[in-house]
Specification:
The chain has 586 residues and is an alpha/beta fold. The strands form five sheets. Strands 7-6-11-10-9-8 form a six-stranded antiparallel beta sheet. Strands 2-1-5-4-3 form a five-stranded antiparallel beta sheet. The chain has a five-stranded parallel beta sheet with strand order 13-14-17-12-18. Strand 4 and strand 5 form a beta hairpin.
Length: 586
């Protein structure tokens, strides 16, 4: 007779019982070695063909991540989307862990599908571009909120309709989707909508495995403002080249206006309120923080949004030309002047916004004329006798200390107070680290769009760059992205693609010797101390023990063991001990 008392249930017997469980069971010891993996787990994880499964490295990547973060996941439930499996994580012996897994139920799958649909729609609705998706026949399947704005009708009036039908009704014309299906290739067209908008539409085809059109995805950008500006200038101001406009080709803001951090959200909220007024704005902040983007944001959210937005960099125009560029001149005003004269930015911006960047570089002689515009809304061209009235909002910006310029006599005090009505200081990127990764991704998307080849950042690169202090702010980040995109030979931008100087900074933290000896201590303790410091340093720039192992060129299990040793107070070599030894030696 078999004795069924708990004392006889040996580990080997328990293991045999677990092999008959319908749920998958995987048990790992504190070193990451697998002590149990039953047949159900092998089946769920598609590991039947493997004859030897010894440690965590033999398991799928999702389970390796659970193992790495087991302290955080203990007594929680995770989903393995690649296997359609849910996992309960149970603390094991010591630092070990047990993972109990089973196939997800149909109700759960339905719930997950609804959640994914909601998330997909939320992602589409967060886009600044219109997203219009049809099937391979041209039947509308999904649109985002921007499309409702662009076309002036609700998504319920769009979904289920054929694009030819919508085109016939004048909702938009031409239909980029219909053209793409007919020509069986990706196309780009300028589209006109029923409410008078001009859209730049890119239609991209998704093919199925049989070579048939499965979906057509159209992304559209509103270029109405740019079209109006071009028409305005071509009809009324032939002397001005379109290149002086600060809008890019698609009327975008170049993607640098990202606000995930609380400080930027608060700033944009304030800028939105400022946009509803006619007050003069002075933007302050370091070079490259995005002052131009904030100015554009204020303009687009103001009542002047249908008027021009012009940008003048006062530091980029020679002093001798600045007056004629900003205020214009009459014919024959000076030798070499155009006989027809020239209209300056102050007139061109009539009804809109004039952004004067680097205002601290404006010569004193022109500061008087600008002050006159701010006080009376009038000015005179060079050689002109009549005062010209202009309805323009001035937004100025500088990275200089204007109060100091006033003190040394390089900037007029009265103009300073006229400009400093609503000062807005834009924080540097290092003070809003939450914006770094969204900015990196945003600029990478723009680089992909420009160059055509899709690439993505590795998690390691995003982790490292999120810790960088960005002295050059957004402009430096933008250059980083372009460098890494070019440097990446395959589709993944990893650590090796970092600019050399930055790579060395992360790897060695400086060009100086990595070890500085201040005093003599026993060699054994010195080795232990250096080992601890190296692990801590690597830990500060990585997100997993595998990355630490890669940096230090050791096994991951070695890193885990040494980290556990560091956490143990009785084994830790502390600075105090070293200091005490040094004091005793002295």
């Amino acid at each position: 007779m078999v004795d069924k008392t708990p004392s006889l249930l040996t580990w080997k017997f328990i293991t045999r019982i677990l092999q008959h469980f319908e749920e998958g069971v995987v048990i790992l010891d504190p070193e990451g070695e697998i002590t149990v993996i039953n047949s159900a787990a092998r089946s769920l994880l598609k590991l039947e063909k493997l004859t030897s499964i010894k440690n965590v490295n033999d398991l799928p990547k999702e389970l390796q991540e659970i193992w790495e973060n087991r302290y955080r996941h203990n007594n929680t439930k995770r989903f393995l989307h690649n296997f359609d499996v849910e996992v309960n994580i149970v603390p094991g012996f010591g630092d070990g862990v047990a993972m109990i897994m089973k196939k997800r139920s149909s109700d759960l799958l339905h719930g997950q599908e609804k959640l994914i649909n909601r998330e997909l729609q939320a992602i589409l609705d967060s886009s600044f571009d219109g997203i219009f998706i049809t099937d391979g026949k041209g039947i509308t399947l999904r649109v985002n909120e921007k499309c409702e704005i662009f076309y002036g009708i609700s998504r319920d009036q769009l979904i289920g309709r054929h694009v030819k039908e919508l085109e016939k009704e004048g909702v938009f014309s031409p239909s980029a989707t219909a053209m793409a299906i007919e020509k069986r290739k990706n196309i780009s067209v300028v589209q006109t909508t029923a409410n008078g908008r001009n859209l730049l539409v890119q239609a991209n085809i998704i093919w199925d495995e049989n070579g048939e059109i499965y979906r057509v995805i159209c992304s559209s950008k509103d270029i109405t403002e740019l079209s109006h500006l071009k028409n305005r200038f071509s009809q009324n101001h032939p002397l001005i080249n379109d290149s002086q406009l600060s809008l890019d080709e698609n009327g975008n803001t170049n993607g640098s206006l990202v606000a995930k951090s609380p400080v930027m959200k608060k700033l944009l909220n304030f800028a939105s309120r400022v946009a509803q007024t006619e007050s003069t704005v002075l933007l302050l902040g370091e070079t490259g923080v995005g002052k131009g983007e904030i100015a554009r944001y204020i303009h687009k959210n103001s009542r002047r949004s249908n008027g021009p937005f012009l940008m003048v960099n006062c530091g980029a125009i020679p002093d001798t030309l600045m007056e004629s560029e900003i205020f214009g001149y009459d014919g024959g005003a000076f030798t070499g002047a155009n006989k027809q004269g020239k209209i300056g930015f102050m007139e061109l911006a009539d009804g809109g916004t004039l952004f004067l960047d680097e205002i601290g570089e404006l010569p004193l002689s022109l500061q008087v004329k600008l002050l006159h515009v701010l006080q009376d809304g009038t000015f005179t061209r060079i050689g002109g006798r009549e005062y010209i009235r202009t309805d323009v909002r001035i937004i100025a910006a500088t990275n200089q200390n204007l109060e100091e310029l006033v003190r040394i006599g390089k900037f007029r005090k009265d103009l300073y107070y006229r400009l400093n009505v609503i000062p807005i200081t834009i924080p540097p990127l290092r003070e809003r680290p939450e914006d770094v990764i969204p900015l990196l991704i945003s600029y990478l998307e723009r680089t992909i769009e420009k160059n055509g080849r899709s690439k993505e950042f590795s998690r390691d690169v995003l982790s490292l760059l999120s810790k960088y202090n960005w002295p050059g702010n957004i402009r430096e980040l933008q250059n980083f992205v372009e460098w890494m995109y070019v440097a990446a030979e395959d589709d993944v931008i990893d650590i090796s693609c970092l600019p050399p100087a930055i790579y060395d900074r992360f790897r060695f933290n400086s060009n100086e010797s990595p070890i500085v000896i201040n005093r003599i201590i026993p060699l054994k303790e010195a080795l232990q101390f250096v080992e601890q410091e190296l692990i801590k340093k690597a830990q500060s720039v990585t997100t997993s023990t595998y990355q630490i192992a890669e940096l230090l060129k050791v096994n991951q299990s070695t890193v885990v063991r040494k980290l556990n040793k560091i956490k143990s107070p009785d084994k830790e070599i502390t600075l105090n001990r070293i200091s005490n030894f040094s004091n005793n030696a002295n």
